[in-house]
Each structure stands twice: as structure tokens, then as C-alpha cells.
Amino acid sequence: MNRIYKMAKAFKYSSRCSRNLSNAAADCTIFSLSSGFGKCGVSVIRVSGPQTRNALQTLVGNRHELKARYAYLRSIYHPETKEIIDKGLVLWFPAPASFTGEDSCEFQVHGSLAVIAALLDALGKVPGLRPATAGEFTKRAFYGGKIDLTEVEGLADLIHAETEAQRKQAMLQSTGALSRVYDNWRKRLISCAAHLEAYIDFAEEENIEDDVVLQLTKELHLIITEIRDHLNDQRQGEMLRNGVRTAIVGAPNVDTAGLHKHTKDMVELEGISRAKECLQNADLILLLTDAQELLRNITTNKQSAQNYQTDYLKQLDLDANKLIGKRIQLIANKIDLLSTTDLQKLAQIDSVLKITCKQPPTDIVQPFLRHFEKLLYELCGEPTAEHPRITHARYRQQLERCNEHLHIFLHEYAPDIFPDTAISAQKLRNALKCIERITGHVSTDDILDVVFKDFCIGK
Fold first, then answer.
1. Count of CB atoms within 10 A of residue 179's CB?
2. Nearest to 105 by CA among 75, 66, 77
3. Continuous segment of H or E residues that includes residue 167
4. What domains can be seen in the chain, in order of their start residue?
5. 398 and 435 in contact (C-beta within 8 Å)?
6. What pTM was estimated for this model as a whole?
7. Could you report the per-residue pLDDT of 419-447, keeping only the tens digit for each?
8. Which of 46, 217, 226, 278 sits a CA distance of 20 to 30 A from 415?
């Protein structure tokens, strides 16, 4: 009885997570250009929905049966004029083995604007077909259970990736690297919740194991530790995805407003205030200083470069707490004005980057850029399948809330407190919902609107 009850509980939690399109949406077959707009060698038009097979037969005929996932060279006809639109490849993907999980097909035709327009017009004449909205193919894949929300967002990031590192991270996420981590926690929390509710309902009636609560709390402590380690990533994934927020600060005219205190001008004070806000919100602070001033302080006042940097920031009336953990790089500018002796002194300071903005020679610029590249690499890290990183702020928020609920549960469930077990169990269910909000296994309409707003029409 106990085993059956646990299985029933687990099924109850899993069944809540099913995702289905509305009946109206499911009855529609959608089509769209899936490749890029503009003239090109080949364009791909995608179709998905219950009328896909009918659309195929209408445009290419039904004289030959099309095997699934085979490419066929066929003449494509307009259903009204019966004229040939183009000769191209057609592929048939019957449900559920397709991207969306529905019957789907692709037309790969020549990429002229006229061919694309004619083919889209032809599909629009097939009963039951309509143009797809932005992101609708991916949304159907999500609702069909083919991908979860982290994979959806990974796919969106892949579309918008601009660097090789961003592409690699997005590819890992779109193929389930993060999904596997979160789904593992989700399944374990479902198991814990099922065991707890079985204990609540049947502890006095059935032969429930005496150590069920002890084992449950051990598992929850382990999950908390794993989530905490996952959160302790220095925001590397988010910085790689969104870019490293960088502030160049220093004396007047280095980039942001000059950070100094000797002014009563209201406009300049506002500029200084904004520069400080920019600095406190930055991931990377580039502290640009005059090379001669830096050497004078190090030589005359016997300061180290680190002490000079610390004192400089203290003089700016900044909130020191907001600078804790930030990466700060000291840069010595105007080295073209230094003597040979001073250049040698500056070269002995490893923690300082050297630059000149006056016709900088290659032997100055290239080392600077290499060091700066290394600095960004250290901040963003290297994406790996073994240790996928948090890429969205909402993941971090939900994981932090999950751990909060688990901590509250474990505190209230301490043996010396004698809590209301049923009320404490709600904390465990709340923790589970936090994970499910990340992956989209619970109602996420508000999140979906944000996720899909930047998708392309044909994706």
C-alpha cells in the first residue's frame, strides 16, 4: 500500500506538469519562411500541424508516397493556378518525431523573393493553414514536451549569439545541459514530497520506515548544497550572455564624467553621480590614471599599485560595500610622456596595464589587447557541458527562492520544534514549484510572453 501511494503521489506531481496547446491552436496548421530573408541560394519554408500531409499532397501531388525524413526532389505547384512554382526538395516529418512533435514538413526551394512569395501564397490557399506568429514553432515544441523552457531560451540565445563563446554556451543550453541539472533536482524534490506526504497520511496506519524523515532531510541538505554551488558562479554565464558591464573611470575626460569632488556645478555633479552609479553597477572597472602621477605616488609615497588603487577609490566617496568582489583593473595612460627610466620602472609593476592614446605603437596595443582578452576570459569562464552556468537572472531568482523554502522547511521540521507537518510540507512543494517555473513545468504564461517576444517568425 505504501509503495502504491508513493507512486500515486509522484504521478500526481508529474501530471501537473503536462503542457498542452489550446484546442484552437492545436487545430491550426502553421507555415512560415524558416531561413533568413533576402536573396539567397536556398530558402526553407516550414509547415507544422494536422493539415501538413494534406498541404504536401496539394502542392507536390500524391502519386508517390513520401518516406519520413527522406529528401525528395519534386515540382511544387500552386493549388489554384496549377502552375509550377519551383522545383526543390521536400521532407516529411510525421508526428511525434519532429521538432514540434506535430506532423511537419519542409520545402527547400530557390531563395528568390518571387519563389518565396509564391510558395507562401500557395500554402495560404490550402484549407486549415495560416501564417505562423513569431516563435510559434518553438512554442509548439515546448507545449508538445519536446523541449523545456531552458532549452527554448538557449535556442533564442543561439539565434542572437555574436561571439564563439556565446554560441558555445547557447548550444549547450539548447541541447539540454541546464535542463538535465534542473530536472534532476525536480525529480528528487518530487520524490521527497511524495515520501513526506505518504509519511503524513499513513505513518500511523502503515508500516512506514522509521528513518524516512531522516533520509528525506539528508537528501534535502544535499540538494541545498548542490544549488548553492550552482549559484556560486560569479555570474559568469550571465556576463557571457549579456556582456560584461564595464566602466572606465578616473579623472575628467577619460570616459565617464571625471570623478572628483572639487566642483559646485550642478550639471557636473549630476555627471559625477551617474558615473558613480555606473561604476557600482559594473562587472569590470577600468581605473584609468596618468602614468606619471601613478609613478610619482609609488616612488614618492612608497605606495604599491594596489594601495594607490584603493586610496583613489576611497577618495571618491563610493560605497565600498558595492565594490566588494568587483574586478578592478588599473591602467596607466600617457606612457608616451615617460622617460626610458620611468618606462622601465612601470614595466616592473605586473598588475598595471600600460597604454597610450597618442598614435599607440603595435608593441603597446597588442599586449594590452591580449591582457584585456585574458581578463574577460577570467570573468566569463569557459562554458562546459559538465558544469553549465546560470544564464538568466530569473533562473538565479527562482533557485535562491527554492533554497529559501528548503531552509524554512528543514528549520520548521526540526524534531525539537514539533511543527504542523502538513503546513511544513507546503514549503517543500513551494521549493519544487520554483524549479518548475524555470523549466516551464507549471503555468508560465507571463514568462512565456517574455521568452518568445524576440523570436523570429519562422522559428
1. 22
2. 66
3. helix 164-174
4. 23-144 (3.30.1360.120), 164-233+390-452 (1.20.120.430), 246-380 (3.40.50)
5. yes
6. 0.79
7. 566 777 788 889 999 999 999 887 556 55
8. 226
